[in-house]
Amino acid sequence: MQKKSSEGPEEAELTERIPAASKEAVSFLSLIGKKEIQPCLFEESLVAISESGETIGTFSISVKWACYSLDGWQEEDCFLVLANSKGTIDGVTCKISLTGYISKKLEILEQRIQESMRLRDHPVETRTKVVKRHGQLYLTKTIVEKDEEINVSTFSYRCAQLEGLVSESANFLILRVMARRQSLPQNATFLSFDSDQHICTSTYNNLGFQKQKVKKEDVDVFVIERTVHAVEAPPLNWQFYFLPDGHLSRRVQVGSPATMVILQMPILIDIDEPDPRPVFEKVPLDWEEDAELYSKFLDRKEELQASHATYVRRHPELNTLLADFLQLLLLRKPDDVVTFAAEFFAPFSSQQPPCRSFRSSDKPSPFRSYV
Description:
Family: Belongs to the CATIP family.
Helix content: 10-25%
Organism: Pantherophis guttatus (Corn snake)
Protein name: Ciliogenesis-associated TTC17-interacting protein
Function: Plays a role in primary ciliogenesis by modulating actin polymerization.
GO cellular component, one term: cytoskeleton
């Protein structure tokens, strides 16, 4: 990892040891497929409640399909994650917005986080950008006070060192997958960014099921605890409470005076399972013994006989033609009756060119094969 800072006259460069994710975490990420992610693509919103029960802000998350292109180069399908948080605590307005593009393998493509805080007339804003390019992750962290950049830090990491990395964008999707499974991998140790954009480890723990009251209804929620073990700061800890379909019902950050909760039950997402094809046993059918089927058979038989008789009456030439054929057939008595019939009726075909009714004996017939 390389770091460059604008704080001093010279650019500082340092190398830090990159931790490793657990094999179980890497395997977990590799086995998440499109079919499992599809029901996790939805929008949701919560409200921030203070310790006194007052509504002090909002929190929203949206995950959907998108298309990503870096500098107009080749596009690729990806997931777009949008998250926004806004609240006022002790008279201080805080806003956090996240925009992230992650690949179908849940790898970061680009991520922007903007955190702003207004202390009376002194606004402070922190902007963090991460972009993947040519096998490298480039990070830029900018601190702005009163519209003036006072500090810019840049980092770069080789992607080959970051197997098992879970960005903040991917974290929302991974949590939903875990919630729908209602299980976590053993020893779930991933890589993450801490608040200073250093690579650190993050862990997920299964806290089991709890009861949560939504309005007047008690619902079962699955609780997941996430801890980011920062390099130079105390660990950051969150607890996420999920409904069975992956909707977030509550979020608690340890040490924060605000709790995110839903005000009403959302419409749960249900995956339609195709009904199994019915299997019918084969039952022997004797239609002659079935009065209904036998009656239909007689009706159809009479209908066909009447239709055929009508057709023959309308075409008297049919009797003459068949009589001529039978007379010639009995005179010639050929061994191959089918070929003889084909040669007899060939002159009447509308698809054959006109020809004489009686061929010469030396002209080959198209209906016979000669060796």
